[in-house]
Amino acid sequence: MNDFNNKIFDTIIVGAGITGITAGNYLQQKGLSVLLLDKGKGIGGRMATRRINFENQKIVFDYGAKYLEGTSEKFDELLSLLYKNQIISKWNEVENVDETPKFIGRKSMREVAIFLSKELNILNSTKVIELRRINNFWQSIDELGNVYKSKTMLLTLPVPQAIDLLDNSKIDLDKTLQNNLQEIKYERSIVGLFIADGSISLAGKGGIYLDEGPVSFITDNNSKGINKFKTAVTVEMSNSFSVDNWNKSNSELRKMILELSRKWITSKILDYQIHKWKFSKPLFSSGKSFEVIDKQNGLLVAGDAFRGNNIDSAYLSGLSAAEHIYNNKQIIELAEK
Domains (ranges, CATH) in the chain? Predict the structure, then answer.
């Protein structure tokens, strides 16, 4: 048990990716009490960075979102804030992308999430397996049996995981809403993280986006400026490759990925890790900013699948969902009576 078990929050948010962090910040700045629960060891979702120990050094890889780019006025405002605080920098070394300015974390992509979440209450390694509505309050129950109470709820998990949680909680969905949620599918992505003994051949670029073929994106993390020792290469594979080879062993995947990347990676590989994103990017996006599951009791679902398929979408969805919760404070006020 921890101190959070003894408190009733205005809102509990399940998921501490960009959507959850954005919603949490908005609500907390409006004076509401907020708790984020996330099953992972870290925060940020696809704003992911990994450090591999090698020869007493930390080799740094970004392996989720490759960069940030402004596609809306509100997200541009966020980018300006991050840039002003020296959290992000411009990245002009990407091949085969449009001319929209690209930004990366100066230290890592995860540093963006860390900066944005620094004032929030977040519990990591906390997997919520059931929701209950009792006496005007939501109970979020984790796999260890801990109970966290709130007046409203926001789920920012990948939609299939949100559906599983709702099913496990025996929360009935409107048939149309259920169909809409079930239509949202995700790409998978297998990612290889390779420590190379020499430089790689990206034609002077820090990253290359590939429209066709099994390799989707290759990043030189040294060129991004986040890694200083050896050469750290991130190779993201396509959805079709990832689906076809999902159950292969890491050693098999290492061999396959390096063979398919030999045009760019010619140096000896000193070490590697494989990561599998089961919910990498939505294949189908809802036209809405979020979905209201239970209007009367304040239960919502949000995430990148509701505005598009990128970090901008995740941010805007979280902002819209939080605005809805705040504008319907009567649910919170009713629970207080």
Answer: 8-41+124-184+284-336 (3.50.50.60), 49-114+186-282 (3.90.660.10)
